[in-house]
Design goal:
The protein is of the alpha+beta class. It has one helix spanning about 1-25, and strands spanning about 30-60, 65-80, 85-130, 135, 145.
């Protein structure tokens, strides 16, 4: 399993360079999202994210006002640029803030999010969003989902 997780970590870091600038240019929506699956999920914006799963979890509080609660197993590492990493993540997380980025790469991911922002989903699974309806996670290019419930 660790080999799969490490491979996903490399893929996530490569995707971040391409994905996050899109968000910075103002691609956004308001709403709610529920998703379940295996793969990579990136959520960026303001609001609340609750998730559970197994793999690697990254969190960044860009505004410095986030409430971050992580329970379960995993080794926490703080990076100088503000990223928090939970390697070997097996548990739950609650993240709430005005400028947050939450990334999870792994299996048995279940998450709900509400607020304003975007989500990108790669792998195999399903999602239900108040703005974009429902669908399947994208396997190569990913799928973008708008969050759809005003704060």
């Amino acid at each position: 399993m660790w080999k799969k997780v490490l491979t996903l970590m490399v893929v996530v870091m490569a995707m971040l360079a391409a994905v996050l600038p899109v968000h910075a240019e103002g691609v956004s929506g308001e709403g709610s999202l529920s998703a379940q699956g295996d793969g990579i999920a990136i959520l960026a914006g303001r609001g609340t994210v609750d998730l559970s799963g197994n793999g690697v979890l990254w969190i960044k509080d860009k505004a410095g006002n986030a409430v971050i609660q992580v329970t379960g197993e995993g080794e926490k590492k703080e990076f100088p640029d503000g990223w928090l990493q939970y390697a070997g993540f097996h548990g739950t997380a609650h993240v709430e803030g005005s400028r947050i980025v939450v990334i999870v790469a792994g299996v048995d991911i279940e998450m709900t999010a509400r607020g304003r922002g975007r989500a990108w989903l790669w792998g195999h699974g399903s999602y239900q969003g108040s703005a974009d309806g429902s669908g399947e996670w994208g396997s190569r290019r990913g799928v973008r989902v708008r969050l759809a419930m005003p704060l």
